[in-house]
Amino acid sequence: MSNNIIKVGEYIVVQKHNYKKLYKFNKTDSRISVGKDSVSLSAIEGCNYFSIFKMVAKGKKRSREYDLELVGETACLKDEIGIKSSGSDNRNIYDDGRSQKLTADEIYDLKSDSSKAADIVETLITNSNTFHNKTEFSQDKYLKKKEKKYFEYIQILKPNLRIISEILYKLEPTKVQGIRIDTLSQIVTMANLCCEGNHLLYDSGSNGLLAAALLNAIGDSNTGRLVHMHPGNMSQKQALLAMNYSPEHYNKCVSVNVYSALRQYYQGCDTNSSEKIIEVANSNSLKRKGESLPEDGAKVSKISKTQSLDIEKTENRYTQEPKKPKWHFDNIEASNIISNKMDSLVIACKEDPQNIFVELSKFVKPGRPFVVYYPVAEPLQNLYVTLKSQSNVAALKLTCSWMRNYQILPERTHPEVLMNGSSGFLLTGYILK
Predict the structure, then answer these.
(1) Number of other residues whose CB lies within 10 A of the CB of residue 199
(2) Distance CA 191, CA 182 (A)
(3) What's the Cα-to-Cα distance from 290 to each of 80, 87, 176, 282, 287, rounded to whole Å?
(4) At 327, which helix (H) or strand (E)?
(5) Cβ contacts of residue 311 below 8 Å, gap of 6+?
(6) 286 phi, psi to nearest 5 deg
(7) Given this model, what pLDDT does residue 378 score?
(8) Per residue in 96-124, pLDDT tens?
(9) Which of 62, 137, 353, 430 is most buried, most CB within 10 Å of its CB?
(10) Cα distance between residue 391 and residue 306, in whole Å
(11) What's the CA gap between 265 and 384, in Å, rounded?
């Protein structure tokens, strides 16, 4: 399928061991930085997504410049080295800095000259006095540490919602308002997205993650639409663009400024620009005629043809209506969509959500769900109390999505210690009228 082919201009995810980073494949001969290494992407065009490439040093390894070579699968460092013996315990092993026979300079030269990571690690193990006395668990831990350091394979992944969410959350949680993939799935589920309906989203800073999730749930081959409202001049679209949607799918999302869209809805189309331009042109022409008349009433001299042509061109320039920007037509389109009422409402904002909810809930059909996300619980508690005293909403719930990752390994399965316990709070319910 052509959708699984890596093309220039698309976003790609580069994975090296457990490290993932999002890039845009702008041109064939582009280079990217993966840690301290500079990697050329000239070999990936036309290959399938999820292909594995080996990093081949360009010249000496000291330059840290690499080309990519397509391979079938990665080589396991433990299988290549072939560890045969291990100790029963580590009680007689001391970290005194004298277990390794090679000096720092010799290890540096070894890194620069060796072509394979297995050769480097095998040499380090051979010159170690204590490696074969360690337990099997300690040896595995040592090999994983070295494999992470000298790993020489890269995999090109196709961006999807889960991968993009993990990358953005690990990079900086505050830039996506602390929305994890579990909270994102809860938002999509509780909003009850319908592929044929119209949905309203207010997002004030999640890097386009919520818009990408809702548009992904709407799908490509149907009539659903998404109105994406934001408070600034430009919407955040990093995650939305990274999904590599087709133009038909991407155009189902209409991004508008919330103030401009509401002004368009309540006040109608901004038609005063052409009238003002005509008035200005008429006043300018009258000024020119008045200035051309002498004060003493003397005979008016004939105007040359070139001067008359110049005046006509100037007047035409004033009377012609200037080309309207794209956001003007987006506001009109969004106004038409919300005038027919929406099938769901999703709010994820940095400001207090109460006034935003009161204003936008007017555009939701009766019996349709709403979801309000906020990183902390207090503003949602205030909104909960306010809505509870009214009769236009039902089934109010204030929930917190809690998730914990577990390491699953033989005889050492345990939950991760360092991770955030909460990923924000959700207020959900249904609009009655």
Answers:
(1) 26
(2) 14
(3) 94, 106, 61, 12, 5
(4) helix 326-339
(5) 285, 288
(6) -65, -40
(7) 93
(8) 777 887 777 777 777 766 667 777 888 88
(9) 353
(10) 73
(11) 28
User: Could you give the CA distance from residue 266 to residue 269 in angstroms, rounded to a whole number?
Assistant: 9
> Which residues, 6+ apart, have CB-to-CB distance to 115 below 8 Å?
57
CB atoms within 10 A of CB 129: 11
Percent of the chain with pLDDT over 90: 34
State the pTM of this model. 0.78
For residue 28, count other CB atoms closer than 10 A to its CB. Answer: 13
How far, in Å, CA of 14 to CA of 9, rounded?
15
**23-36 pLDDT per residue, tens:** 999 888 888 888 88
Distance CA 206, CA 226 (A): 16
Instruction: Give the model's pLDDT for residue 319.
Output: 56
For residue 300, give every residue at least 6 positions away whose Cβ sits within 8 Å of its Cβ, in sequence order, or none.
Answer: 292, 293, 294
Residue-by-residue DSSP string for 226-245: EEEEESSSS---HHHHHT--
Strand runs labelled E in 231-383:
253-257, 344-348, 368-374
Q: Which pLDDT does position 306 carry in this prediction?
A: 55
| Alpha carbon distances (Å) from 377 to 348, 398, 400, 422 | 13, 8, 9, 11
Q: What is the pLDDT of residues 40-95, one digit of tens each?
A: 888 898 899 999 998 888 876 667 788 888 988 877 777 777 777 777 777 777 77
Nearest CA to 248 out of 228, 222, 229, 230 is that of 222
Question: Does residue 227 contact residue 201 with C-beta atoms inside 8 Å?
Answer: yes
- For residue 431, the tally of other CB atoms under 10 A from its CB is 21
3-state secondary structure of 357: helix
| Strands 368-374, 344-348: pairing kind | parallel
Amino acid at 284: N
**Per-residue pLDDT tens for 195-228?**
888 999 999 888 999 999 999 999 888 888 999 9
Pairing of strands 225-230, 198-203: parallel
Give me the phi and psi of 385, to 5 degrees please. -65, -40
Residue among 182, 242, 205 at smallest CA distance from 426: 182
Burial class of residue 73 (count of CB atoms within 10 Å of its CB; 0-12, 13-18, 19+): exposed
Give the distance, in angstroms, between the CA of residue 307 and the centroid of all CA atoms in the same chain. Answer: 57
Cβ burial, residue 367 (10 Å; 0-12/13-18/19+): exposed
> Which spans in 53-128 are helix H?
77-81, 104-113, 117-126
